[in-house]
Amino acid sequence: MAKDQKLYVRKNSKIHASGLFAKSNIEPGARIIEYRGLKVTKAQSNKIADVHIAANKKQGTVGAVYIFTLNERYDINGKVAWNLAKYINHSCDPNCETDIVRGKIWINAIKNIKKGEELTYDYGYDMDCFEDHPCRCGSKNCIGYIVRSNLRWRVEKKLRDKKEKII
């Protein structure tokens, strides 16, 4: 495929608002798109996230915080017009993963992706405020919240314990 030919197109998503969808079949290992934005320090990143979260709560919405961890010192603020990767939604059964190579964040296919299929990856959130991050991916193993796969059992346990206290 030509270097300048995009593998994706932005369309409405059943998962959340907009999403990126495969323009053609994509094989595992294919590098699809770079997650781009402004390089910010962790302190700046926290302030930006707080502002976005407060604005979302005021509007009665969730999501739209496009901060991506780059390394121990820096993050990428992807809330810029030139970052179409920000439209890739979370899934508990993703078809892509992220890979950081020489200071760049790449989204790569981990499965065969059919033309028209939505591109997704696991956002990898931790347990902090998991209830503020509902998941609408609809996959069989979805627990209803965006939490990285190795922590989902903890969320399930918390939800069971909470339900048992009510009963």
The name of the CATH topology is Beta-clip-like
Query: Strand content of the residues, in percent?
Result: 25-35%
Task: Kindly report how far apart the N and C termini lie.
Answer: 57 Å
Structural class: alpha+beta
* Number of extended strands: 10
Provide an overview of this structure.
The chain is an alpha+beta fold and 167 residues long. It has one domain: Beta-clip-like (Beta Complex), CATH 2.170.270.10. The protein contains two helices and ten strands, in the order ββββαββββββα. The chain has a three-stranded antiparallel β-sheet, with no helix packed on it. Strands 4-6-5 form a three-stranded antiparallel β-sheet, covered by helices on one side. The longest helix is centred in the first third of the chain and has 18 residues, at 42-59.
Which helices and strands appear, and what pairs or packs with what?
Blueprint: E1 8-12, E2 18-22, E3 31-35, E4 38-41, H1 42-59, E5 67-69, E6 74-77, E7 89-90, E8 96-101, E9 104-109, E10 120-121, H2 152-166
Parallel strand pairs: 7-10
Antiparallel strand pairs: 1-2, 3-9, 4-6, 5-6, 8-9
Task: Please name the defining characteristics of this protein.
Beta-clip-like; globular; alpha+beta; 3-stranded antiparallel β-sheet; 167 residues
Q: Concise description?
A:
The chain is of the alpha+beta class and 167 residues long. The protein is built from 2 helices and 10 strands.
